[in-house]
Every structure is written in C-alpha cells, then in structure tokens.
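Chapter review: from sequence to fold.
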Amino acid sequence: MERLPVAVIGASGYTGAELVRLLHGHPRVALAGLYARRAAGDKIAAHFPQFAGTLDGEYLHYDADAVARAAKVAFLALPHGEGIAAAKELIERGLLVLDLSADFRLRSAAVYEQWYGAHGAPELLAEARYGLVERHRHSFAGARLVAVPGCYPTATLLALAPLLDAHLISPDGLIVDAKSGVSGAGRTPSLATHFAEAGEGVRAYKIADHRHTPEIEQELALACGKEVRLTFTPHLIPMSRGILSTCYATPTDPSRERADYLAALRTAYAHESFVTVLDRPPDTAHVRGSNRVQVSVFVDRRAHRVIAVGAIDNLIKGAAGQAIQCLNTIAGWPETEGLASLAMFP
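The token string follows.
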C-alpha cells in the first residue's frame, strides 16, 4: 500500500511531537519532513529523547517549495498568527493543510481581530472547515484547509452541543468552568508554568478574556440557531496533560429526568468511535494518552441546573489526534486509523 507523504511544520513543540509520534505509527502515512524554525538543524532526539533510535534525523528549515515537493499534506503546529503565511503558501501549492492554531477557527474576520489582532489571510476564513469531526464531518468534502479545534472548545462542545441540539437546555446563561494540564501552555518556558509556580496550586487565568471563548460561542450558536454569550473560566492544574470542562446550563423543562439528558448524549454519539457517555463523572486520567472523549451529564434539581462534563487529553483529542482524525475522514480512511490506542492508566 502506497503511503501518503505528510509534513509537520512546528514539529519541535509538544503538539508537534505528538503529531510525529502518532503519524509515525499510522499505517497509511509516511513522515516526509519535520520542520522547525528555531530548532532547524538540530537532532530530533536532542529535543525529544523518546525518538532516539527511531527518528534520528534533523529538523529541517521550513521552505514552502521544499514541503510541496516532499508532501501532499501539511500539519501546522505553530503558535497563533505564525502559520497564516505558511497555510496560504502551501494551499497555493496544492497541499491539504491542517492547522492546529486558532488562525482559521473563527469564521468572522472582525471577531478574529477583536481577540487575536488583524488576520493575514481573511479570504481563507470562509473556506476553512472547522475540524470537530463529530459535528462537522459532512462539510469536509473537497477541503483544502482544516482548522483543528482548540482543546477547551473540544471538551466543552462535545459535552454541551447535543443538549442544545435536543432543546434540553437554554443557550442563555451558560457557564463553563474548565481545567487544563500545563502542557496546554506549550513548551516555551514561562513563569506561570515553572514548577515552583504551578506545582502545588490551582489558579484561574484569563478570566472573562480567554481566546477560546468566541470559538465555543460560534459553535454553540450553530447548535441552537441563535447568538450565544457564555461565561468561560479556565484553570491551570498541576498535571502534564488533560482537559476537564464542567458546563452549567438552565434546563428548558425542569421536570425532565437525568435519563433524558443522558439519552440525548447517547443518541448523538451512538456511532462515534471516540466518544463514550458515562453514568459517572468523566476523569482526565482515563483518557490520558488517547484520542478518546468521556462525557456525562447530571441534574441539580434544587438549583434548577444541568451540569454537563467532558474530559479529553489536550494534546491528542485536543490537538494532534483530532488533526489526524480529520485527515482520516477527508481521505476516506477509518477514523480510528493510527488512533486506536487505549488510554494510559494508571
């Protein structure tokens, strides 16, 4: 079987390394180039020793023409704003581009500018397909550019959207309280992620100002057919990886039983390979190292609230694994190809 040549641009970060690890084990693709701007020329194993003896080459200098000669698909694992020019160059050269930053997730250039600044290729925003496969696989035909969803939005949308689809909860007054492992901040050292700063505490950050807020609102608006404004508060947890999103909503009918909400989730995910609906609360430890998602929902009758919970691994289902799931879908391969590994526990 001929393998599809793929390139990873930004291969020296945490997300890039997860892409490399998963793609290396994918039976239908071949790694055709690992590119890194600051680490170009360095040995791959010098940055990620787990690849010693397996990937002993060097990171390459990024050049669009060289990528186009070597690969048919490019994964961009670059910081927000840095991949726009590369995406445009590679699409012009006929590659399928899967971008893991936020650069193409928002459909409105005005909204993007409000949260991120001016966009370098606003003409591509309408073309980009939002890569949450469980919600948008029908839109992937003919895709040239896929915007791989953020980690917080993935856990939140998969927990909440089916309840909005079924009109079981109101889109008004939604509250999302989410926790993330430190790897979500990337590999570049900072004071906030220094062990002595993060290792023994839990802190909220970017309160009422996190950039994933408009992405979540955009996708929930599609589910309910009206504008959504929610309160989103992320927290940093002293663990390496994982996202737990706890979402609070008002029921449209307070007399409904928990079984009705669970039934909506089970109906939505009855044929999904990676989403499991639980009776008990989801746990990041039980999805760690996998592309799997755990969701559940509970009812607080006293407070007239519905509580939906989603758990993912932020580096896999929240980034690298989800990008590969998108490629599998576009290529017409089984969605589980290269992603069938179970979670690592304990």
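Two observations follow directly from the output. The radius of gyration is 20 Å. The chain has a mean pLDDT of 96.
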